[in-house]
Amino acid sequence: MKFIRWFLGRVILxxxxxxxxxxxxRSAQAQxxxxxxxxxxALYQFEACPFxxxxxRALKRQSVNIELRDAKNNPTHRAELEAGxxxxxxxxxxxxxxxxxxxxxxxxxxxxxxxxxxA
Length: 119
Ligand SMILES: N[C@@H](CCC(=O)N[C@@H](CS)C(=O)NCC(=O)O)C(=O)O
Fold this sequence. Notes:
The protein is an alpha+beta fold. The protein is 53% helix and 18% strand. It has helices at 2-18, 28-38, 50-61, 75-85, 107-118; strands at 41-45, 67-70, 92-97, 100-105. The radius of gyration is 15 Å and the shape is flat. It binds glutathione. Glutathione is lined by residues 46, 49, 51, 88-91, 106-108.
């Protein structure tokens, strides 16, 4: 079972690599603004999780560069996710808004948020 999961994960990563979406092109200034806004975001994720791949593809499509935090292999990131979001479930987008932090679960909600903010 573990092997099958591992194998399927590799297939997903390969397909994602082969059919990688192209990112939107912006002027240098517009991209700088996007990069600045993206500083307030971080994605907690597992490398081969299909829902995480879906969100990473949306980020790539929108040319949004955010920090990816591995919640599977990095115990610090895993603990942050559990403490902040309340559960170790990925993907989870951490959104900093001033003093407040929102933890957004559900890949579809995250993709909709990215499209609203950056498309
Ligand atoms: N409906 C969720 C599904 C997310 C999901 O099932 N993620 C798995 C990894 S692929 C997970 O975090 N499993 C750990 C758990 O549920 O405790 C989404 O679209 O984001």
